[in-house]
Amino acid sequence: xxxxxxxxxIGERINPGFASSKRLxxxxxxxxxxxxxxxQVANGARYLTINVGVRAASDPIFIAGVIQxxxxxVDVPLAFDYPNAAVQEVCLKTYDPAKARxxxxxxxxISELRWEMFDVLDIQPARVVLMASERLEAGVAVPNxxxxxxxxxxxxxxxxxLSNGHGLSADDLIIDVSLCPLATDTEGVVxxxxxxxxxxxxDPVLKGVHQIVGLSNLGIxxxxxxxxxxxxxxxxxxxxxxxxxxxxxxxxxxTPGREYRMLPEDDFVFRGFREALALEGFDALDxxxxxxxx
Length: 294
Hints:
By secondary structure, the chain is α/β, with parallel strands linked by helices. 37% of the residues lie in helices and 15% in strands. It has a single domain (8-289), classed as Dihydropteroate synthase-like (TIM Barrel, Alpha-Beta Barrel). Strand 9 (210-214), helix 8 and strand 10 form a beta-alpha-beta unit. The longest helix is centred in the middle third of the chain and has 17 residues, at 147-163.
């Protein structure tokens, strides 16, 4: 079970990015999807993400059926992981808040490049994930390459939303600063995320706003064990949480049941993780490799 009580997990497993889940979705196995939903909630998920892949756009009846099937067996709210207004419209028209203890669903995600997606909130109230990793500049999409850019984009988006309506409160806003695999991070993306979370968490205008990352991205491509014999990926994820939860991170898209925990300063993986964040380019990758390779 999840020992970090102040961390909200959005269960990520109903997603074709996982081989076992893809088989369920490809075969339209609604019973299997229901079992997966029940398992995630039993392991501590407070929300469940729904992502059926590209089929959502071509087969709206299927994604509606998945939503209905999941809501028949669990009472947690759902998060719809599509940067596509047409798909979100189907999801919100299908979602029944009465089956989720009257809790709002989550629309994931909206950015400055997709502001028109706020129109889907006319269907029913929802919380929203705001992508702060990119911005609109003179009508052109620009990736944010510094923590300051990420934080400024988050500030600008939230201020615009809270000042002009949409019926959203700070509690309805969830900022995603984006993560990449630590094993391939030569550009300091993980360090930027840590720093941006700190800047956003310290911004008085953003008080009450939530912050999220797709935590499972962090440990992709790492081996199972560190040199000290312990598991490595969940400890890398825990290292990230140890650094960022005190700064304002309170939500993750992750796998319920993983043993996320706060790590002590002398933990072998935590120490290596912090040192890797302080390095640049391939020096950072080399320090990560020292966690599992002599």
